[in-house]
Automatic annotation (TrEMBL):
A Pfam match: PRC_RimM
Quaternary structure annotation from Swiss-Prot or TrEMBL: Binds ribosomal protein uS19.
Domain Ribosome maturation factor RimM PRC barrel: 115-193
Chief location of this protein within or outside the cell: cytoplasm
Stored NCBIfam families: 16S_RimM
Domain RimM N-terminal, chain residue ranges per copy: 12-103
InterPro entries assigned: PRC_barrel-like_sf, PRC_RimM, RimM, RimM_N, RimM_N_sf, Transl_B-barrel_sf
Swiss-Prot/TrEMBL keywords: Chaperone, Cytoplasm, Ribosome biogenesis, rRNA processing
Protein name as annotated: Ribosome maturation factor RimM
GO cellular component: cytoplasm; ribosome
General function of this protein: An accessory protein needed during the final step in the assembly of 30S ribosomal subunit, possibly for assembly of the head region. Essential for efficient processing of 16S rRNA. May be needed both before and after RbfA during the maturation of 16S rRNA. It has affinity for free ribosomal 30S subunits but not for 70S ribosomes.
GO biological process: ribosomal small subunit biogenesis; rRNA processing
Amino acid sequence: MAKAPPAPLIDLARITGAWGVRGWIKLAPFSADADALHEARDWFIAPPDARRRQGPRHFDAPLQVHVLQLKPQGDALVAQLQGVDDRDVAQALRGATIALPRSAFPALPEGEFYWVDLLGLQVRNRQAVVLGTVAEMLSNGPQSVLVVREQPPADAPDAPAPRLREHLIPFVDAYVDSVSLTDGQIVVDWQPDY
């Protein structure tokens, strides 16, 4: 295992424990689409935070690991990592997070986006009214949903924080007109009072 470079990493899964007796780990992906995990041969493991850690802390900074095998196991994934060949070592990784740099994600077809690329984009409607920025993404099964939050006014830093509106906009062609990652904005067919 080697230390990770200082590049920003995107969390993709959590290690839930050991699988078997030969050092395999069991993963719970954060998304149903785990293509990035399958494509990458090297992952970064960030140490578990205090509430997820069990026992002593074994490492303090992200570590780069080489993936020997990855396969589905029920609704989870299991992986064999180079240098992890003992159940106790695999169990010590429980609660740690698997992450990758954005550059390791496979390219997508035109018109498809990774959720992480949509976060922080400004959302405007067809009338050029700014509805807010994408704060998070949700999945309700058949479709993804943009969680768009209004930005607090910048002209009153000492005033009490106003209650900010939130819009839940289905990320489907019927409501999303365009997405421009280069311009940092999404245009939607949505009104401020929806």
